[in-house]
Amino acid sequence: MNKKNSSKYDYLINEYPAVITKDQFYRICNISKKTAKHLLDNGLVPCINSGKKTRKYKLKLTDVIVYLEARDASPEIYTAPIGWYKRGSTYKGHKREPRVLTEKERKHIINYAKTKEVYSAYRQSGFSAKYYEANTENILLHQSAKQGFDSISSSKIPSMRDLQQEFNSCLDSKKVILKDYASFFYSFEIMLIL
Questions:
Q1: 45: exposed, middle or buried (Cβ count in 10 Å: 0-12, 13-18, 19+)
Q2: CA–CA separation, 150 vs 156, rounded Å?
């Protein structure tokens, strides 16, 4: 290899074959078997999956070196999802995180909710020009919020109650996760003391 493409992981090329197994992969990378499985199953590290029960993964050593360099640059991309390491039947697989509203979308929801009654009255008046002149600002704000939603998705606009319920459920799950984290951290501190 020339100096331009040299890496601190070049020594691996002399120590391992060009194609390696999952066992060699997790030992080279100093990660657990479960983390290796997560990386391979989710395509974070390219591999060939034969579908067999044992020895089913084959990886190019060059792909492993690329992974190690990328992990050094941004390790957060390669972390396993929350709950990945839990044992037993409590872990039901990685669930997609709920889509978080942007500030612009949140503003559209609030404006839509605030001006809904004014716009309804405007529609009931038969789109009266007189009513429009008296409430132009609110009507335009309502129409702008509705257009914002239409451009984002064709689904039903969520109500403030639905959004509040979703927020509360996220808050509850956060409390559970923090409680688990605190107990884990406490047990970890005890192990360090011993």
A1: buried
A2: 9
In the DSSP assignment, the letter for residue 186 is H
Burial class (CB in 10 A: 0-12, 13-18, 19+), 189: exposed
Phi/psi of residue 58, nearest 5 degrees: -130, 130
**What confidence tens digit (pLDDT) does each residue in 135-154 have?**
999 999 988 888 877 776 65
End-to-end Cα spacing for the chain: 47
Q: State the number of CA atoms in the 13 A half-sphere of 88 facing the CB.
A: 1
DSSP 151-182: HH-SSPPPPHHHHHHHHHHHHHHHHHHHHHHH
Cut 0.85: pTM above it: no
